[in-house]
């Protein structure tokens, strides 16, 4: 029979039970395994990424399975406890069932929100993208929900432990049909007891305390805020700007930022020509949760090459369309680079935005990733800035 009765679990409920159990136990296994893996070499990080990707992909599957399971359970009678006269035991059993229902949603959701808040590192392999529409990009949010995820895992361990011990007790000590109800669908019990509200309310209280506690706890030391150093000595003073880059990790886009740089810009609006020179402090770069790997010897090697430079001639192509053609020196390699950009000037304010695609191999980056399966070759660089025209006296350069 597909549906439940007050004495038995139908096949749909049983398949859902064992499928969620399998997915959740696999997610726990992979989560705990990944936690202890080394992260010292690039090969170790590649393994770590694969394990976490599997963890997240299975976790997201567990979320949708749980959602379907819960929607199904709402439409079904809940089989009555086998020994309603044992009040405390029945209450504990049901409390744990409700706690497990909570965990089925809270575990994957907290993991997913934490992941979405910090796009980058170990993508989810479902085609839903790596972000969530209502989750802002913020390392604080990511840390907060990682905290919820880790604390909730402790509740989940306890609930599963007691749940399995309880099931075993019914097999070994009571020798009743509790297990057979969930495995073979054998009907058992009187089927007349009404379920109280105590157990679901108590489970809700446990979860409210755990989530509230995790959100209220300080989420570790704050990383020092990067200092943008965008001063200039040219005839345009940069007031604000961003220098970002995007790489493909296992086929998913990961966005990074280079927040510390200085630029000297000389640009003559009449002729549409000028020069630019940019010094970038690579030691300040961030790339989601793989920042340390990006700074390492394999990629930016910021210990050996703390500064990257871009010097170029500026040329107006047509209207606001411009290009900066010059040389990017990064990681000791000097490579020609043309950056197309748009520039609009209103009063003495200039707004520019440009984007160019580099090949990491030209800079000797990621040589132990010779194909694109882990890290793509193309690196897209995005620049935006606002600048203010300096008073004419500064133009004279005297
Ligand atoms: C692998 C070990 C597991 C065993 C042996 C097991 C066994 C059982 C049994 C025998 C029942 C029926 C209890 C009754 O009729 O009163 C049950 C119900 C239940 N199990 Fe498990 N289970 C396992 C893992 C899990 C896991 C990992 C979860 C979820 C995280 C889970 C969630 C539930 C829930 C929510 C119910 C109540 C279903 C309902 O009445 O709506 N179980 N389990
Ligand atoms: C049923 C679903 C899930 C379960 C049972 C689960 C369980 C776990 C466990 C047991 C850990 C290790 C925690 C620790 O060592 O303290 C973990 C870590 C982690 N999980 Fe999940 N998880 C689930 C879903 C997800 C999802 C959907 C995502 C992301 C999309 C995710 C992302 C993570 C991350 C990033 C970590 C590492 C956290 C850290 O070390 O800071 N999890 N998870």
TrEMBL record:
Protein family according to the UniProt entry: Belongs to the cytochrome b561 family.
Q: What is its main location?
A: membrane
SMART domains referenced in this protein's UniProt entry, alphabetically: YceI (SM00867)
Q: Does the keyword Ribosomal protein apply?
A: no
InterPro entries xrefs:
Cyt_b561_bac/Ni-Hgenase (IPR011577), Cytochrome_b561_oxidase (IPR052168), Di-haem_cyt_TM (IPR016174), Lipid/polyisoprenoid-bd_YceI (IPR007372), TTHA0802/YceI-like_sf (IPR036761)
Q: What is this protein called?
A: Cytochrome b/b6 domain-containing protein
Keywords per UniProt:
Cell membrane, Electron transport, Heme, Iron, Membrane, Metal-binding, Transmembrane, Transmembrane helix, Transport
Task: Tell me how this protein sits in the membrane.
Answer: Multi-pass membrane protein
The residue ranges crossing the membrane are 12-34, 54-74, 95-113, 154-173, 194-217
Compartment annotation: Cell membrane
Q: What species was this sequence derived from?
A: Rhodobacter flavimaris
Quote the Pfam families the UniProt record gives: Ni_hydr_CYTB, YceI
């Amino acid at each position: 029979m597909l549906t439940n009765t007050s004495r038995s679990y139908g096949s749909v409920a049983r398949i859902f039970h064992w499928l969620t159990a399998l997915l959740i136990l696999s997610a726990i296994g992979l989560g705990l395994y990944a936690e202890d893996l080394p992260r010292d070499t690039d090969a170790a990080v590649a393994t770590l990424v694969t394990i976490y990707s599997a963890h997240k992909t299975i976790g997201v599957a567990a979320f949708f399975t749980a959602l379907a399971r819960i929607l199904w359970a709402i439409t079904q009678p809940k089989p009555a406890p086998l020994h309603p006269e044992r009040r405390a035991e029945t209450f504990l059993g049901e409390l744990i069932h409700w706690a497990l229902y909570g965990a089925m949603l809270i575990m994957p959701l907290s993991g997913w929100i934490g992941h979405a808040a910090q796009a980058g590192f170990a993508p989810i392999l479902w085609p839903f993208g790596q972000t969530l529409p209502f989750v802002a990009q913020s390392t604080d949010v990511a840390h907060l929900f990682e905290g919820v995820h880790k604390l909730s895992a402790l509740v989940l361990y306890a609930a599963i432990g007691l749940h399995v011990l309880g099931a075993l007790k019914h097999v070994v000590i009571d020798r009743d049909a509790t297990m057979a109800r969930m495995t073979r669908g054998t009907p058992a019990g009187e089927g007349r007891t009404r379920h109280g509200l105590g157990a679901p309310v108590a489970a809700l209280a446990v979860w409210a305390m755990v989530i509230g506690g995790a959100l209220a706890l300080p989420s570790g030391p704050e990383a020092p805020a990067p200092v943008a150093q965008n001063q200039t000595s040219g005839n345009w003073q940069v007031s604000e700007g961003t220098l970002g880059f995007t790489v493909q990790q296992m086929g998913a886009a990961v966005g990074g930022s280079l927040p510390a740089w200085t630029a000297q810009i000389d640009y003559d609006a009449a002729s549409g020509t000028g020069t630019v020179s940019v010094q970038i402090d690579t030691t300040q770069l961030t790339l989601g949760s793989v920042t340390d790997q990006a700074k390492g010897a394999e990629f930016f090697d910021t210990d050996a090459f703390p500064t990257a430079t871009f010097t170029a001639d500026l040329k107006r192509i047509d209207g606001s369309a411009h290009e900066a053609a010059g040389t990017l020196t990064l990681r000791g390699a000097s490579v020609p680079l043309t950056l197309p950009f748009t520039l609009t000037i209103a009063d003495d304010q200039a707004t520019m935005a440009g984007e160019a695609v580099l090949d990491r191999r030209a800079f000797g980056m990621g040589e132990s990733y010779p194909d694109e399966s882990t890290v793509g070759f193309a690196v897209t660089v995005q620049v935006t800035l606002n600048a203010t025209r300096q008073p004419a006296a500064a133009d004279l350069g005297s």
